[in-house]
Amino acid sequence: MKRLLILMVVSILLAGIIFPSAVCATEDSLTEIDYDPNAITMYTYEESGVQPLWTPVPEGVTDGSYLLDCLNDGVYTRPSFAQIEFLGVHYLETGYLNKAFYIRIDLGKVYDLDKLSITWFTNRGVNYCVYGSEDGSDYNFFDDQSETEDGTMYTESVFDEDARARYIEIEILGLTRHDDGLGGEKNFFAMYEIDVYGTEAGKNQQQLLRKRLLLHPRKLLRLK
Ligand SMILES: [Ca+2]
Q1: Is 124 a domain residue?
Q2: How far is ligand 1, taken at its centre, from the CA of residue 81, in Å?
Q3: Residue 222 included in any domain
């Protein structure tokens, strides 16, 4: 029985070496989470002095833009975007806000997360960090995108294997382009899409095992 097991393990490992494309297939097969974009909320701390809001649909605009639905509809072009505008003290040299504000996404269930990506509407970069929480009160740090450069159209956070959350918070630290002629303090940015990838917690054990087999074959050899 033990020999059979070893033979199976060796066969799997050899398959990984002979057909390395299998590793790529794992990357490509990420599952997108179909969360409700209308469950996205935004908040800041009262004492921060930052006033963020979702830009309301401008008068006369009837093409469906500026709605939260746009953030998870799989459309990465006009008019499918939503915009945030904010007023707050920021450092002129860096564009960083004195105090951050937060976008919170409720995925509806707890997920083992693989990746979060944002497709930006304009060519102004947004500096942010990503946190995750299973219960909505205790958050873990997931990723740092605070070095985003001006002109960035797409950012991506690939999470560690143990990243598990129902709630994701995107901490908006500021914009890379601070001077847009709007008076120094007022600013805005827009997003076409916020994509989150992962699988429902506890339902992906086989997938995780396969991932570990491919990524950490030596660990498997130590198993009895
Ligand atoms: Ca969209």
Answers
A1: yes
A2: 5
A3: no
